[in-house]
Specification:
The protein is α/β, with parallel strands linked by helices and about 425 residues long. The protein has 14 helices and 16 strands. The chain folds into 3 domains: about 150 residues, NAD(P)-binding Rossmann-like Domain (Rossmann fold), CATH 3.40.50.720; about 160 residues, Dihydrodipicolinate Reductase, domain 2 (2-Layer Sandwich), CATH 3.30.360.10; about 80 residues, ACT domain (Alpha-Beta Plaits, 2-Layer Sandwich), CATH 3.30.70.260. The structure holds NADP nicotinamide-adenine-dinucleotide phosphate and L-homoserine. The site of NADP nicotinamide-adenine-dinucleotide phosphate has 28 residues, from helix 1.
């Protein structure tokens, strides 16, 4: 159906962009392709008037006269109302965002590292200036997540948040699982599709998910959770053997971000590869898709899912924020939420209770299994299932154990003790389980 265009003259909102890579291009294309709908819904005429980039020679879909390598001139331009920071990294992005706010401009950013490390200070500055600082694209790509958490779910006492927060690693793990591809090949594909960070070790080693979980935790628990308070493990150690056993045992391997409030009020936040049972709602979230499950005291369980990375979904989140800011500009206000000032007390990972997967190689000797069972028993660790298979060399056996829920401190103590008994050749791998 063709809709008639808005004929009345609309107030102009002048926008400056910092960065025109994957996300910047996605947002720009959406503003062009859906121009009429965006005019109608924002009741403003959004004009991109300057675009800051680093390399003036790269071919771009934007008119050349909009481009500049002088990014400072954009954030200090008195005619610009809104800045889209889509360049990434801490600096110069941080300094430019701060200058933009001090110069009276609303800011929309997709920069999770900047928000995780300096979000409280920047939101406080925006509040003081009476300006918007919005960041829907920073977590979960195209999924509407930050706005519902800040607004519609704000009356809840959040109990737990758990999610797949990184599209690149979910894409890699899916390719490893379904196609048997090596990590490097799947990573190259994710980079070509525009999912990965400028430095993809941020994805593979879990930093990107750590920043995102720090942001979600801060909003969910109304206390500042800095990235250092989030335990982080990446996916580099995932071998084809773990993929094999995960399949055989009825699990998928996912890089999960999980945060919960412990009984003493401390916050336990962690990012690590997890074996997720096939019956779990996150097990079927594959490829570039992200999903976040949240439990609130009144709302109960809520699940958000969608494409977590890439030009179009992330561009969609940026444009959504821009429309929101334009509506606020029309009514002369800003819709910032109050950023907590109180620091969260981090809970030690050793206080976690979890189930575990463990693979080890032992010598095939009489009483070997009894010896291992005694170590587990002495550490309050109980076996729920076991599978053993001769390796056909030097009388060795590969054993996989599934462990009943126990304290992480006890499980780690049992691993330490197992490494010290002579029949254990090596502890090959272990992982936490989610049922
Ligand atoms: P990108 O493709 O690498 O684009 C970065 C853009 O910023 C480029 O246009 C680059 O200029 C410009 N830039 C970077 N440093 C600059 C500097 N010092 N001076 C001038 N220009 C500079 O990155 P992206 O994937 O679009 O990501 C941008 C931001 O969005 C990051 O914070 C990222 O974490 C976040 N994000 C990305 C995704 C995604 O799916 N990719 C999803 C959600 C959030 P040139 O073009 O000249 O190199
Ligand atoms: N590199 C990030 C990811 C981009 O793969 O999820 C989206 O934040």
């Amino acid at each position: 159906m063709t809709r008639t265009s808005v004929s009345e003259p609309l107030p102009v909102v002048r926008v400056g962009m910092l960065g025109f890579g994957t996300v910047g291009t996605g947002a720009f294309r959406m503003l062009q392709d859906n121009r009429e709908a965006i005019r109608r819904r924002s009741r403003t005429d959004i004009q991109i008037v300057k675009i800051g980039i680093r390399d003036a020679e790269k071919p771009r879909i934007a008119p050349k006269e909009l481009l500049t390598t002088d990014l400072r001139s954009i954030v200090t331009d008195p005619s610009i109302d809104v800045i889209l920071e889509l360049m990434g990294g801490l600096e110069p992005a941080g300094e430019l965002v701060e200058t933009a706010l001090r110069s009276g401009k609303h800011v929309i950013t997709a920069n999770k590292e900047l928000l995780a490390k300096h979000g409280s200070r920047l939101v406080a500055l925006a509040l003081k200036q009476g300006l918007d600082l919005q960041f829907e694209a920073a977590v979960g790509g195209g999924i509407p997540l930050i706005q519902p958490m800040k607004h519609q779910l704000a009356g809840n006492d959040v109990l737990k948040v758990m999610g797949i927060l990184n599209g690149t690693t979910n894409y890699i793990l899916t390719q490893m699982f379904e196609q048997g591809k090596p990590l490097e090949e799947a990573l190259a594909e994710a980079q070509a599709k525009g999912y990965a960070e400028a430095d993809p070790t941020n994805d593979v080693d879990g930093y990107d998910a750590q920043y995102k979980l720090a942001i979600l935790s801060t909003i969910a628990f109304d206390q500042v959770v800095p990235p250092e308070a989030v335990h982080r493990e990446g996916i580099r150690g995932i071998s084809t053997r773990e993929i094999h056993f995960a399949k055989q045992l009825g699990y998928r391997i996912k890089l999960l971000g999980i945060v919960e409030r412990m009984p003493d009020g401390a916050i336990l936040a962690r990012v690590h590869p997890t074996m997720v049972a096939l019956s779990h709602p996150l097990a079927s979230v594959n490829g570039v898709y992200n999903a976040v499950w949240l439990q609130g005291d009144f709302v109960g369980d809520v699940m958000f899912s969608g494409r977590g990375a890439g030009a179009d979904p992330t561009g969609s989140a940026v444009v959504g924020d821009l429309i929101d800011v334009c509506r606020n500009i029309r009514i002369g206000g800003a819709a910032n939420f109050v950023m907590p000032e109180e620091q969260a007390k981090p809970a030690p990972l050793e206080s976690l209770r979890s189930r575990y997967y463990l693979r080890m190689v032992i010598q095939d000797r009489p009483k070997a299994l009894g010896c291992i069972a005694t170590v587990f028993g002495n550490c309050n660790v109980s076996i729920s299932a076991m599978e053993a298979r001769p390796l056909g060399q030097r009388n060795l056996i590969e054993i996989v154990f599934l462990i009943h829920p126990c304290r992480e401190a006890d499980f780690l103590r049992s691993l330490k003790a197992l490494r010290n008994i002579h029949i254990v050749e090596n502890i090959s791998a272990w992982m936490r389980l989610e049922e």
